[in-house]
Amino acid sequence: MNIGEICTVHTVCCSRDDTVQDAAILMRMHHVGDLIVVEGNGGGKVPIGILTDRDIVVSVIAPGLDPGSLLAGDVMSEDLLTASETDDVYETIERMRLRGIRRVPVVDASGILSGIVSSDDLLEFLAEEMGELSRISSWQQAHERRARQ
Q: Looking at domain 3-118, what is its CATH homologous superfamily?
């Protein structure tokens, strides 16, 4: 299965020039723990970073900095791992595991943002797969009972 089939299409974005306070307000308003930092590219939004609620707490709030005077670009994680819509789910999981990353922007063939996939999305997908796998045994037993009658 491709990552584009399970990613969350609705993403909340900000620009690198938005203040950290404005970014936090967006997170609160949309009930999300991260924002994809994007740059406009005539044809769409290109992800350039990610800003998480943890980034804000650790880099701004804990040291007592003013979130209204810092920009998202000052705090965002720039070493961005992205996944293509056509990337395999299991390869994406491995890349996330190796980098210790829980959220990955998903891009189309042109590098335009098309969604986001999180470790929670992947856990839900894997749980569904495991559930389907667990039903094989009971289906096989029922099939054998019918065949013996």
A: CBS-domain (3.10.580.10)
